[in-house]
Design brief:
Elements lengths: L8 H85 L3 H12 L4 E9 L2 E8 L2 H13 L3 E11 L8 E9 L55 H7 L7 H8 L4
Helix pairs in contact: 4-5
């Protein structure tokens, strides 16, 4: 005999499926929440690690900035010391220049010229003074050119001015300070070498030597001097000291008196 189920099985199966759906939905929500928390924790750890790295880099940058500032301070101190060293070396090198300069000023100034002002700006010297005439100033400039400690005189102003009748002309003269043997460029300034020092001309005779200087005196045979003629025996004995010894013998043969 066939069995017939008259109970509402469809509604019960629907309820079971609904319960399963809710279970699955809750599990999915819980899984999503767990995954979200895990992702949040992971990224939070990543952010914390990056913040720590950033803090370390910031600390290192601060230390490097302090070291850079210290290096800059040391460089500035080094530059100041080098400048002081250069000034001291320049003063040491030019220690005797002022003595020679004033000595040359006294030696080169001609009669009829009087200096009223001397100004120095580095290697440039400006002279102001009075003179009797233009020729006196020209002679003064020639004396400066001949001096070894001053060169390139440049006359900017000369005019008849003032109440002094003996020295009516006033002049303004500029020149370049130098040293004997120093190379002077076309602009009148000392020529500097690669090492930053002025170039110097070689001393006369120091660069070249003549090969004949090393030849001994006996290398060429010395021929005896021919006897002078009788008429000119006295004249040759007076003109050449080397022939004074044989002069009496020659004069005795020629009949001339010594």
């Amino acid at each position: 005999m066939a069995k017939v189920n008259l109970l509402p099985w469809r509604s019960e199966r629907r309820k079971v499926r609904q319960q399963e759906f809710y279970y699955l939905l809750g599990a999915a929500a819980v899984g999503a929440l767990v995954l979200g928390l895990l992702a949040m924790f992971y990224y939070s750890e990543q952010i914390d690690g990056q913040n720590k790295r950033n803090a370390y880099l910031t600390d290192q940058i601060t230390q490097l900035d302090a070291k850079i500032a210290e290096i800059k301070a040391l460089d500035e101190k080094k530059a100041k010391l080098l400048r002081r060293k250069e000034v001291i070396e320049q003063l040491q090198a030019n220690r005797s220049q002022m003595v020679h300069l004033f000595d040359e000023l006294v030696r080169t100034i001609p009669d009829g010229v009087r200096l009223t002002s001397v100004k120095q700006d580095g290697d440039k010297l400006t002279l102001e003074g009075q003179s009797q005439s233009n020729a006196r100033v020209s002679a003064y400039m020639r004396n400066i050119e001949a001096s070894g400690w001053m060169t390139n005189p440049d006359l900017s102003v000369i005019e008849a001015k003032g109440d002094d009748k003996t020295l009516p002309y006033q002049f303004n003269l500029s020149l370049i300070l130098t040293k004997p043997g120093q190379v002077i460029g076309p602009d009148g300034k000392p020529v500097m070498g690669p090492d930053g020092k002025p170039l110097m001309n070689p001393a006369p005779g120091a660069a070249t030597t003549t090969p004949t200087a090393t030849v001994p005196a006996t290398a060429a045979p010395v021929l005896p001097a021919p006897p002078p003629p009788a008429a000119s025996g006295a004249a040759s004995s007076a003109a050449s000291p080397a022939t004074t010894a044989p002069a009496p013998a020659a004069s005795s043969k020629g009949g001339a008196t010594p």
